[in-house]
Here is the input.
Amino acid sequence: MTLMRPPHVTTPTPATRFLDALFPEPRDFGIRLPDGTELSGPESPPFTLVLNREGALRSMFRLPLELSLGQAYLRSDFDIEGDAVAAMGLMDVLSGLSASDLARILRLWLRLPRARKLATTRAAARFSRRLHSHTRDRAS
Here is the structure.
């Protein structure tokens, strides 16, 4: 059985603009959008970031980032096909961005579609106090 894929994206979408700004070419991994469109990467990437839903990017990159990524993964907003350990290095990209790059990426993030609410979605956990305090950090 041959898997049919949409043709290469010719008109940039908010998602492709955001991904190209965050992970500019040449990428050493693959990206597949919910409609099946694949953004360029190497012939045999070590892993592929697979976005399963429209609005996944917006929910994945909310602050605090670590919490949002974990929640998005548990909701199956995205998957990693291939070497999941290699995918962990994607977060290093964010630490190397300049303030102007971050501002540009934030503007692009604001244009991303919002995720549709699922009937089974529960409210996100809320901390009753500061996320980090001496007492809370010492207790863990």
